[in-house]
Amino acid sequence: MGNVNLSRVNEMTPVERAAAMAKGESVDRLPCNPNVANGVARVYGCKISEFNSDAKTLATAQIASYKRFGYDSVRIFTDLFTLCEAMGAKVKFPEDDTADLLEPAIIDVKDIGKLQPANPYKDGRLPVQLDAMKYLIEEVGNEVGCSGAVVGPFTNAFFLLGVDNTLKLITKNPEAVHALCRVSLETCKIFAEAVIKLGLTPTISEPMSSCSVVSPKTFREFSAPYLKELVDFIKSKGKGVIMHICGKTSHIWQDIADMGVNGFSIDNVASLADCKKSIGNQVRILGNVDPGGVVYCGTPLDVRLKTLEGIADCYDSPKGYTPMSGCSLPVETPFENIQAMMDTVRDVGYPVRPEKVEAMIADCKKQLESLKYN
Questions:
Q1: Quick check: is 151 in a domain?
Q2: Residue-wise pLDDT tens for the chain (374 aa)?
Q3: What SUPFAM superfamilies does UniProt report for this protein, alphabetically (predicted)?
Q4: In this structure, how many other beta carbons lie within 10 angstroms of the beta carbon of residue 139?
Q5: What is the DSSP string of 115-155?
Q6: Cα–Cα distances in Å, from 194 out to 134, 180, 188?
Q7: Within a domain: 167
Q8: What is the pTM of this model?
Q9: Rounded Cα–Cα distance for residues 319 and 241 (Å)
Q10: What pairs with residue 285 in β-bridges?
């Protein structure tokens, strides 16, 4: 594990920062979350496969990464297949990479009625995830917001019958898709409730709801009703909701905002400025530095520039803004690039002074231009 740069430590804990911002009091900087995901294995020095069977390793790796970089949210998340696996799907587990779907829970639409909601305390890896959440909140819950990832009902439904089969059913057998989403939602709710009982906040990941995958019309018919029910359920338990949808989402921004989510995380292909104009008066916006093209493949200076440009676009969003990567960072993302995002937000400070940010952007561009000729 790398040493913390002691000259760049936070002046406030994330919990202190969030509480002060909510009261309109002074803070040191904007909240920031690079979304390191399974890259925490590289920080801690373990194999990703250990996350699937060892709750303490999963939690401790997340804590190690949080301590290393000082970001504002820590989440237990390994992959998108924990819920479908608990419902009968088969998952492949590389020794040191993120898990992937091997076989859906069922292969015939006639078997949808056989699917049962998962038991989060017994089925698949859900008990490991919950144990990790317990370790996490016991260790750092007093200083940083802790969350547990819940795969959204529409996305999880695709993994129950297979992505291609489910896409075909949208037009051929819409009733079957609704049946899949309904049983999927029940597992989402049961798992979300288990997360809440531990004191953590559920976050929702809904990549298959992206306009890059399905049309807004399809989203509104097959995803939105179940997603709204999940949001309402979580809020009824006293927790706010942060949601992430990958890819293009501009055509469904208003739908998401009207669900009553507290925050919406957008991918790098979406526009922060447009999102602010569209729904910034309803939800906090999080995003959206390119996780692959910039944070993984770029230099610290590239990361600094894109982080600054995001702040310039969205710092004044009415319900708030959190600089963040557009999605989970690749596992091998260089530490110095993650650090660059955090350092940039610290350098900007708070309240954000737009003229200072513009000067910092100009300086970055000048340095990048200079590097082309040297």
A1: yes
A2: 344 443 345 689 999 999 999 999 999 999 999 999 999 999 999 999 999 999 999 999 999 999 999 999 999 999 999 999 999 999 999 999 999 999 999 999 999 999 999 999 999 999 999 999 999 999 999 999 999 999 999 999 999 999 999 999 999 999 999 999 999 999 999 999 999 999 999 999 999 999 999 999 999 999 999 999 999 999 999 999 999 999 999 999 999 999 999 999 999 999 999 999 999 999 999 999 999 999 999 999 999 999 999 999 999 999 999 999 999 999 999 999 999 999 999 999 999 999 999 999 999 999 999 988 76
A3: UROD/MetE-like
A4: 17
A5: -----TTTSTTHHHHHHHHHHHHHHHTTTSEEEEEEE-HHH
A6: 11, 22, 10
A7: yes
A8: 0.95
A9: 14
A10: 264, 321
Q: CATH code at 356?
A: 3.20.20.210
Range of the domain at 247: 6-372
| Domain count within the chain | 1
Output the DSSP codes for 44-85.
HT--GGGGGT-HHHHHHHHHHHHHHH--SEEEE---TTHHHH
Which residues sit opposite 331 in a β-bridge?
none
- Bridge partners for 149 per DSSP: 203
Identity of residue 130 = L
